[in-house]
Amino acid sequence: MNDDSAFSLPVAALMYHASSHGADPLLAEFARELQAQGWRVHGLVQYEIVPAGGGRAARELLDLASGRRYALSQDLGPGSRACSLDTGALAAASQVLRHALQARADLVIVSRYGLAEAAGGGFANEMLALMSAGIPVVTLVSASLADDWRRFTGQAGAELPVSRPALQAWFDRCVARAPKAAQTQGAAP
Question: Do you know which InterPro entries this protein is assigned to (predicted)?
Fold first, then answer.
């Protein structure tokens, strides 16, 4: 679904094209602001650590609730062109999303819907569980995976530009649609 004005699941993808540059900081700042307002925001945001001497950037996930970091990049040595994703770290980080489900978070941020999720791995099971529970979920999706994302959500999710106003409007609609009892758990924005 390309129109973010109507959706049947409280799930959204910030769609990016050539690079996600700017999208990760946007999600991190949005989470911090909502947490400061009293919303229970859980999940994972991604950071890149660029080595001082140059070379391939390392990726980390930050748990928004605890501050714990998960190193996603394996050191494969200089000149390596292979995928450096540490699937063990990804599996360990998935517990953050399972905890968010148990805690009935007001919003869960999932760093990416990527190739691993499109193949049924990565955070796919956790994302489906959160969506099934009606917990709002937002993630980043490369435009190259848009068709996979649409299949994954049954075309029921919103697709948003990488924009703070679009993200805020989507979250406001999720809050407005939530049962009144659920709204009293978070602070009114």
Answer: DUF2478, P-loop_NTPase
Tell me the pLDDT band of 56, cut-offs 50, 70 and 90.
low
- Domain count for the chain: 1
**Any idea what the CATH number is for the domain that residue 160 is in?**
3.40.50
Helix H segments across the chain?
23-36, 87-103, 115-118, 124-132, 146-153, 164-177, 180-183
Alpha carbon distance 126, 130 (integer Å): 6
- Evaluate whether residue 124 is within a structural domain: yes
Give the domain range for residue 131. 11-44+63-68+93-176
Lowest average pLDDT, out of 6-10, 20-24, 101-105, goes to 6-10
Contact 171, 27 (CB under 8 A): no
